[in-house]
Amino acid sequence: MSLTIATWNVNGIRARSQQVLDWIARDAPDIVCLQETKARPDQLPALLFEPEDYWCRWHGHGGYSGVAIFVSRRIAPEAPAFAHPNFDFESRIMTVDVAGVRVASVYVPNGGKDFAAKMDFLGSLVQWAQATAAAQPLVICGDLNVAHTDLDLHPKERKPGVIGQRPDERTMFDRLLGGGLVDVGRTLAPEADSMFSWWAPWRNMRQRNIGWRIDYVLAAQPLAARATSCPVLADIGTSDHAPVVATFGD
Q1: Residue environment code for 67-77, b if the CB has 16+ CB neighbours within 10 A, otherwise e
Q2: Nearest-CA neighbor of 49 among 20, 23, 25?
Q3: In this structure, which CATH number among 3.40.50.720, 3.60.10.10, 1.10.3720.10, 1.20.1440.230 belongs to the domain 3-248?
Q4: Percent of the chain as helix, strand, coil, to the nearest 5
Q5: How confident is the model over 97-114, as a mean pLDDT?
Q6: SS3 category, 123
Q7: Nearest 5°: phi and psi at 58?
Q8: Is it the case that residue 47 has pLDDT exceeding 90?
Q9: Domain residues of the chain, as ranges?
Q10: How many whole angstroms separate alpha carbon 52 and alpha carbon 46?
Q11: Residues facing residue 9 across a β-bridge
Q12: Residues 239, 8: contact at Cβ < 8 Å?
């Protein structure tokens, strides 16, 4: 069975609810992971809280966090099992078991206000991912707030030591991949040097494509081997992030 998994940091769902609905209606991904929803479930429009043709769960209390997952009823006729790992204390990760895979929507804190908390979260994520991947196929989607290598940064944005580019953060990313996960976008485009998913919201950075790649689909190796595409949809929406969509063949 082919499978399409999408991820998008919407940077406030209430400001972009119609954009999300229009995008899902246009592309109809099988699974959609959202991050930084910045809303409680009771603040959502009805069409988002119970979208047509999708199972959906929202996890958030406002503030700079909140995640959600949509699962198409095409691939899950019955309601799938949603859950929250026990290290999640700030509505930053949600999982769903569907189509023989555990999919996680993840928002790693950016670390600007509390870098130690970011590293603690990354460490917990690595441990959880390694334990989970040993038991079942895993896909991690979301804003990981780490540019894994300098290739994931526009040359003008390469600033050694800046949070999001630090060696200790990149080591954590390496450990995440070392647990059996594959960076789908980079594997399909190993030399691409302009595949960015986040742009600072000033000086026309998005229009000039001066950005960072910090939104990822990381998939278990057997699933990643089936990947046929994983583009960044830079034309979608008004968030400072763009959706990333991975398609896996039969």
Answers
A1: bbbbbbeebbe
A2: 20
A3: 3.60.10.10
A4: 25, 25, 45
A5: 96
A6: helix
A7: -115, 140
A8: no
A9: 3-248
A10: 10
A11: 35
A12: yes
